[in-house]
Amino acid sequence: MSTGSRAATRRPRRSLAPYAFLAPAVLLFAAFLALPIGYAVYLSLRTVKVRGLGLGKGSREQVWAGLSNYSKALTDPDFAASVLRVAAYGVIVVPTMLGLALLFALLLDTPRARARKFSRLAIFLPYAVPAVISSLLWGFLYLPSVSPFHHVADRLGWPLPDLLSSGNVIFAVANIAVWGGVGFNMVVIYTALKAIPSEIYEAAELDGCGQIAIAWRIKVPVVLPSLIMTFVFSLIATLQVFAEPVTLRPLTNTISSTWTPLMKVYRDAFTRDDLHSAAATSVILAFATFVLSYGFLRLVQSRAFGQENR
Amino acid sequence: MRRHIGLGLTAFAAAAALLLAGCSGSDEPAAEQGPKENVKLTFWTWAPNMDKVVATWNAAHPEIQVTVNKQDGGDPAVTKLLTAIKAGSGAPDVMQAEYQKIPTLVSADALADLTGKLDQGTAGHFPETVWKSVTLGTDAVYGVPQDSGPMQFYYRTDIFKQYGLQVPTTWDEYAQVARKLHAADPKKYLGTFSANDPGWFAGLAQQAGASWWSIDGESWSVSVDDEPTVKVADFWGGLVQDGVIDNKPMYTPEWNAALNNGTQVGWLSAIWAPGVLEGNAAATKGKWAMAPMPQWTPDQPATGNWGGSATSVTSQSKHPAEAAKFIEWLNTSPEAVTALAKVSGVYPSDQPGQAAALSAPPAFFANQPDFYPKAAEIAKTARSFTFGPNVNVAYSAYTDEFGKAAQAKSKAGFTAAIKAMQTTTLENLKSSGFSVK
């Protein structure tokens, strides 16, 4: 405090001003991000030890656990299975979702597109439906005996497969995510497309380019940064998939309580009342998210953003 | 300049705080000497219309006012309570606690021991097996029983008549009826094996004579894979493998539809089933009847429990004596027990008040006038069952393991699921540091 005041009297504005501007951001960051993360790391290094029957006062105490919560999480076959499942889920969801988003954005951007506003809204609307509600809606559509699709298909004599069976359930969950996510990503890409000056298209048309060639050679390369951004968002959303499988779980035998890594965190914290294991798994998950998104950005940065940097 | 003002303000605030603290400090003894202040209690419960039952108490006891705080259900309420206990504040005074959660709550030091705070005769109001659920077999008392869920067999009389089926009295007969019905109409099932309802399976195992936990001196022992449970699992595994019993979970839109359209013809459920059927299959009113559970040994009739809860006082309550008085009234006084049955629709555990409270059958079972007398006879055959401090772990292992087994429709899978449940439950106790035999 004393040094600050002396500095302030000597060089009033220049040295204090930047800190004053920074203060709100630093405070918010510290209070709502750094502190909770620090506390989670602390919890992950602790554990509760019970004595005897564990009944009554003073029978449990918190002790240091070292890295044992981490080794338990990393060697847990359920956790490994949930990670592999989410990887497979990501392989299904991300390319499908971004592919459809790009396709819809390009289609909406072609000069001959009609009912543009309506289509844009219609494709975007599912994004406004909360994941829990969309999962309930889709859940009803998946259950063979209440689904109108199954009803019609059975009448026509083309029995549909049970989408909630062991082999299919990952597609059932992925479908909900794709349905909900395409609209948002399409709007991001479409906005980037709108920013392209029309002279470029005119020049391309004079050079004899068709709409497909324009899309492929001009539009896609120009919106690449948006595609990368939506990819990173989708990657993070994939690692955090939770609401859809949790909502579908009561409807079927095929979604276990540790179906995704976040579900394992939830089970540890609230079913098993073991905050410490949950904290360790959360830290692992946060670290993996950071490495994957940062690593991917580093990998593609030079290519996609090379021009901007120069 | 500004800093000086700030310092001044801080000093002023500190002085004011000191003054205030001084005031309240000198006030306290005065309050103790004066007339006793009204006690305010909060009560977490999910029983419907509990506020109406509590209003009777509030009217008669202006000095102990109880506020009902409606909860979503057993699991979320326990999660909230455990969080409040860890945080050191925020827990209610009184809490509805399902029997299977009591050891978990006691182990987390969430419940107050009511020894000496209850009337001597309180224990005598309840069947011994029910009272044991609130004492855990120790000298402590962790609550007063409120309702129980003795299990019975519910079936569609019209469909039984249509296919010439007899109500099964043994599990062998149950299997035969299941096969006969499914052969007559492949769309129809006598029931379903629900991997989402561990409490249901625990009740079936209890009926067969299982008790998954026990206290042996200063140690716990875990026997999820005891002989009766394996017998029950094998029985259901066989029926599911042959496809004569459905393998879909209960409480899904699909199951509701099946109850309504008669593809689910029976339900092994508990005393509260009429309410569920009324809500989920309203169109089938008057077509159901209740019978005792099918038996393993017909000359020793037995049943299990699915559900049921006690009312407990939490360890954070500042007024445990007053809270104990309230829960005793709620669960043993004739007026409250009658109100619980009529207004809240629970099946009271209180033996003296039960018969008067349940004079007429539930509206949905008006065709069975002896519904409650019959249920009371069945309830007397309930076997004892000890729950342990990690029921939640065992139950979540049940949903995972039996989910796989039911989906695969494999009898061997059912046996493996029981073994996996045992391993998970035992390992969890050991790794938490509990003394385990």
UniProtKB/TrEMBL annotation, chain A:
**What keyword terms does UniProt attach to this protein?**
Cell membrane, Membrane, Sugar transport, Transmembrane, Transmembrane helix, Transport
Give yes or no: UniProt keyword Membrane: yes
UniProt-listed PROSITE patterns: ABC_TM1 (PS50928)
| Annotated localization | Cell membrane
The topology of this chain with respect to the membrane is: Multi-pass membrane protein
Q: What is its main location?
A: membrane
Identify the taxonomic lineage of the organism of origin.
Bacteria, Bacillati, Actinomycetota, Actinomycetes, Propionibacteriales
The record's listing under Gene3D superfamilies reads: MetI-like
Question: Any idea what this protein is called?
Answer: Multiple sugar transport system permease protein
**Pfam name, any one:** BPD_transp_1
TrEMBL record, chain B:
Which key words tag this protein in UniProt? Answer: Cell membrane, Lipoprotein, Membrane, Palmitate, Signal, Sugar transport, Transport
Q: Which InterPro entries does the entry link to?
A: Bact_solute-bd_prot1, SBP
Q: What's a Pfam family in this record?
A: SBP_bac_1
PROSITE patterns referenced in this protein's UniProt entry, alphabetically: PROKAR_LIPOPROTEIN (PS51257)
Extract the coiled-coil ranges from the record: none
Residues of the signal peptide: 1-26
Q: List the CDD domains.
A: PBP2_TMBP_like
Q: Which domain of life is it from?
A: Bacteria
**Which PANTHER family has this protein been placed in?**
ARABINOSE-BINDING PROTEIN-RELATED, POLYGALACTURONAN_RHAMNOGALACTURONAN-BINDING PROTEIN YTCQ
Protein name as catalogued: Multiple sugar transport system substrate-binding protein
List the top taxonomic levels of the source: Bacteria, Bacillati, Actinomycetota, Actinomycetes, Propionibacteriales
